[in-house]
């Protein structure tokens, strides 16, 4: 027990060198910003130190990105704050509703953005709120307050950036290597999962699901590496394209594995390519884990193309076998058709894997005249955006109501931190969990600030001793910020400690001011936590239900949209849903979570096969009767409202029976192959609708049957 207790605090007494360097660098930067603010006779110098801790992140790219967007958000928020006071001076009951609408709009729109782009919008919200509430009793000083706020932010960012540049003067080469390592690791994990799936291992499906969920988060991290490289190359775009190709490869692999399982005994023409593919997947995995993956890429790509050529040769052999003058018989004809489909599917998978390796190589050695661009759109949850906006607007109104009704001298501080907390966490996926850590960190900051204010500082009168007094508490906070178990508490602790100590040139906190001000801060944050818990609280089941409804609507759109959707865009969209499910899952062993992941995978498979059916229909090579059957199937999906897919499965089954009969009697080779693809696609649709009927029924919440099985008959 003692050893376990000590290990929990290893981050403090035996930190890693990189963590110690981060804490030391950021502490020095924060104290430098504070000293400069005191030297410049600023009225609230603590905000400069707070900004330094706010923009300091685990990587240089994250710090630069957050600093940039914080500066943008602060400037725009300052303009908005001045405009609010200028439009409604001394009109509290008009100011608060307008401020609430503005904050709600910013927080709602921030839900649609990722990373620090979202942070800039919420920063606009709470910066305008801070300025407006500070100037509410003195509207003639609003411009000075806005300028002062912007100056603190700029000073804190400059100090953090300057110290970070000293510790990490050149990051371009390091960032490029990190991008290659992340993408190479993802490719290695993908081929490992593919090899396991091709061997029929049960654990491979779980690994493939978690890998698909992590692709999107890795794509987000690449943005920070691009910042470190100052966007001088297209390495980030190539990395995102490689990750998208990996997602398509995994989807293709899952479909191929399911097709192999349906086929039963593998056709002889597919056995050799499959064995070669498994060996090649192991070689790619070993190369990606090796010291120089880039050097192995040309040879690996040559092997992929060679294996692809063999797949094409085998499928041509199957075509020749079924197109001879003598019929091979029904059973043999079906084996040749299965071999054709399996080899063609494996060939397409190899092409996408080759594209992933090509993009990986381009991240390290840019092609000549490279203007490549690729982006992965985020998952947009409109309901969550409305909830965030309404919740934030309501919190602002509540803070203003408390201030107006109580006449509390520190009511403005209370209202400000209601705005700050609600804005800061409104766009988070789980604001209840994150805001509780924010409250915990504020309480720790109050306790440490009380010791510094009443015991340490009374006997000091110069800035040198002030710096020494704050150095150790800030270092502890910096080390805690680098440990995953304490980061949620350490971040607000570091942010609030300078504010609660409230250093100044001509002032010193007395007991009454300390307790009034800091109690207003803690109560404001606590009020926000209460709002997150009571007003439209985050509900994992409700979010999953919304995701299911959105997926079914997307399937209708795929079936009836005027233009055939891009399969890569569809896979990327579903991959973002995977990422959200994986992030919100308490444990990946949870049966309900795994059932949802199976459902999303099923929806991805259904969507891809609908796109493929539309492609076959658009080429015009199907017989009229079969084309009409495919059109009926697509029309049924286009009008599907999302109940139990009994009728939909019946229509798919009827079309499938018609096509199976047509395959046996078709003498035109080209049409026979197209019919074979139609059969394969419809078989997959029938199986997915049957296996995941509960998931597709969006008229009710999705729960596992009492026996715990995640499957249900249509």
Describe the structure.
The chain is an all-alpha fold and 714 residues long. The protein is built from 27 helices and no strands.
What percent of the residues sit in helical stretches (DSSP H or I)?
over 70%
Distance between the termini: 52 Å
- Mean pLDDT rating: 82
Main β-sheet, in a few words? none
Envelope shape:
elongated
Total strand segments: 0
Order of secondary-structure elements: HHHHHHHHHHHHHHHHHHHHHHHHHHH
Low-confidence regions: 708-714
Spatial extent as radius of gyration = 30 Å
- The number of helical segments is 27
SS strand fraction? under 5%
Helix and strand composition category: mainly alpha
Keywords: Cell membrane, Membrane, Transmembrane, Transmembrane helix, Transport
Transmembrane segments: 20-40, 94-113, 120-140, 152-172, 438-457, 520-540
Membrane topology: Multi-pass membrane protein
Protein name: FUSC family protein
SSE diagram, text form:
Elements: H1 2-8, H2 10-13, H3 17-39, H4 46-55, H5 60-87, H6 92-110, H7 115-134, H8 142-167, H9 172-198, H10 203-228, H11 235-263, H12 268-288, H13 293-322, H14 330-364, H15 382-406, H16 411-426, H17 431-456, H18 463-481, H19 487-501, H20 511-534, H21 540-560, H22 567-584, H23 591-619, H24 624-638, H25 646-665, H26 669-691, H27 693-696
Helix pairs in contact: 3-4, 3-8, 3-18, 4-8, 4-19, 5-7, 5-8, 5-10, 6-7, 6-15, 7-8, 7-16, 9-10, 9-11, 9-12, 9-14, 10-11, 10-22, 11-14, 11-22, 12-13, 12-14, 13-14, 14-26, 15-16, 15-20, 16-20, 17-19, 17-20, 18-19, 21-22, 21-23, 21-24, 22-23, 23-24, 23-26, 24-25, 25-26
């Amino acid at each position: 027990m003692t050893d376990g207790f000590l290990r929990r605090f290893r981050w403090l007494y035996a930190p890693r060198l990189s963590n110690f360097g981060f804490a030391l660098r950021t502490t020095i930067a924060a104290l430098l910003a504070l000293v400069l603010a005191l030297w410049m006779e600023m009225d609230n110098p603590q905000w400069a130190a707070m900004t330094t801790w706010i923009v300091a992140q685990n990587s240089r790219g994250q710090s630069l990105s957050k600093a940039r967007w914080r500066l943008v958000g602060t400037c725009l928020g300052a303009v908005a704050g001045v405009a609010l006071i200028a439009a409604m001076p001394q009109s509290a009951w008009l100011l608060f509703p307008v401020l609430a609408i503005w904050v709600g709009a910013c927080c709602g729109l921030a839900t649609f953005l990722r990373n620090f782009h979202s942070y800039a919008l919420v920063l606009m919200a709470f910066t305008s709120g801070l300025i407006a509430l500070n100037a509410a009793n003195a509207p003639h000083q609003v411009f000075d307050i806005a300028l002062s706020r912007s100056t603190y932010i700029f000073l804190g960012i400059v100090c953090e950036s300057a110290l970070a540049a000293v510790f990490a003067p050149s990051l371009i080469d390091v960032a490029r290597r990190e991008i290659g390592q992340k993408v190479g690791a993802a490719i290695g994990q993908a081929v490992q999962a593919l090899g396991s799936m091709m061997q029929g291992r049960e654990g491979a499906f779980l690994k493939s699901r978690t890998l698909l969920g992590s692709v999107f988060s890795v794509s987000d991290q690449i943005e920070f590496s691009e910042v470190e490289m100052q966007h001088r190359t297209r390495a980030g775009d190539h990395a995102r394209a490689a990750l998208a190709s990996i997602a398509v490869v995994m989807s293709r692999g899952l479909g191929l594995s399911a097709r192999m399982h349906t086929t039963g005994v593998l056709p002889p023409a597919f056995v050799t390519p499959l064995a070669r593919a498994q060996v090649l997947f192991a070689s790619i995995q070993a190369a990606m884990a090796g010291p120089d993956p880039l050097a192995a890429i040309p040879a690996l790509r040559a092997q992929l193309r060679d294996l692809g050529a063999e797949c094409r040769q085998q499928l041509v052999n199957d075509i020749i076998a079924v197109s001879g003058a003598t019929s091979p018989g029904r059973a043999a004809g079906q084996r040749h058709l299965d071999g054709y489909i399996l080899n063609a599917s494996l060939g397409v998978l190899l092409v996408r894997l080759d594209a992933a390796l090509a993009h990986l190589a381009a991240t390290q050695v840019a092609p000549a005249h490279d203007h490549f661009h690729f982006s992965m759109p985020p998952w947009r949850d409109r309901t969550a955006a409305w909830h965030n906006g309404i919740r934030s607007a309501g919190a602002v109104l509540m803070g203003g109501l408390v201030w107006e009704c109580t006449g509390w001298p520190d009511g403005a501080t209370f209202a400000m931190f209601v705005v700050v907390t609600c804005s800061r966490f409104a766009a988070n996926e789980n604001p209840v969990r994150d805001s509780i850590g924010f409250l915990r960190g504020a309480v720790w900051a109050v306790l440490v600030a009380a010791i510094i204010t009443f015991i340490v500082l009374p006997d000091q009168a110069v800035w040198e001793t002030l710096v020494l007094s704050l150095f150790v508490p800030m270092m502890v906070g910096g080390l805690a910020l680098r440990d995953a178990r304490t980061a949620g508490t350490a971040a607000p602790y570091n942010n609030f400690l300078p504010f609660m100590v409230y250093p100044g040139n001509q002032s010193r906190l007395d007991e009454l001011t300390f307790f009034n001000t800091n109690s207003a801060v803690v109560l404001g944050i606590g009020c926000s936590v209460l709002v997150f818990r009571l007003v439209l609280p985050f509900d994992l089941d409700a979010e999953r239900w919304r995701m299911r409804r959105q997926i079914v609507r997307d399937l209708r759109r795929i079936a009836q949209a005027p233009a055939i959707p891009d399969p890569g865009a569809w896979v990327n969209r579903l991959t973002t849903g995977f990422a959200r499910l994986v992030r919100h899952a308490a444990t990946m062993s949870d049966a309900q979570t795994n059932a949802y992941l199976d459902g999303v995978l099923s929806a991805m498979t259904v969507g891809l096969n609908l796109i493929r059916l539309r492609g076959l229909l658009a080429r015009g090579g199907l017989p009229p009767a079969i084309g009409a059957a495919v059109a009926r199937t697509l029309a049924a999906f286009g009008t599907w409202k999302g109940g139990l897919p009994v009728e939909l499965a019946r229509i798919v089954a009827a079309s499938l029976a018609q096509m199976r009969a047509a395959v046996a009697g078709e003498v035109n080779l080209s049409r026979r192959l197209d019919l074979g693809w139609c059969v394969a696609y419809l078989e997959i649709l029938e199986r997915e609708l049957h296996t995941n009927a509960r998931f597709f029924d969006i008229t009710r919440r999705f729960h596992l049957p009492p026996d715990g099985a995640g499957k249900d008959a249509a």
